[in-house]
Amino acid sequence: ENGIYAAMYAYQQDTAKTFVDMNPIHIIYQCLTDVDWGMGYSSADIDETTFRAAALKLYNERFGISLIWEKQMSIMQFVQIICDHINGALQLDLKTGKFKIKLIRDDYDINTLVELNPDNILTLDSFQRMGLGELVNMMTVTYTDRNQTKQSVTVHDLATLEAQGSIVSTSREYLGI
Predict the structure, then answer these.
(1) Rounded to whole angstroms, how far apart are CA atoms 35 and 41?
(2) Is the pTM of this model over 0.70?
């Protein structure tokens, strides 16, 4: 391990090939701290505890990505794409001034969550529920396979499709996977 992050890890598939992907947290760290092409923040501006925990969680999940920033978007847009891939949130802690990262996982104690109800909400300025016609009943996900070919998979929510009587679709791209 070099510093607090190892750059890449390899894994073996059932085939004879070994693939090397980068831990997404390492990519975000590099984007934030690289002085040549990144944002040039100091490592002191990074909350090491949250970055280590997220990097370890992704490592244990064997979640590596192969994605290149081609400078056609800002670095923060690229970081957001990575966060979308890993279902994570990068934020600036207003108390410490450091970047923190949190993976959105089911790793919480439901008994410690704040319950919002009429007893602790002072005002409700706006509230809307989605109508049946707004619910998505078809999702297409596009990704890049190991041969660098775009692939896609589509799934349907048959019950909602039946109730709506027509297709309401959306799509997502995860080209680093």
Answers:
(1) 7
(2) yes
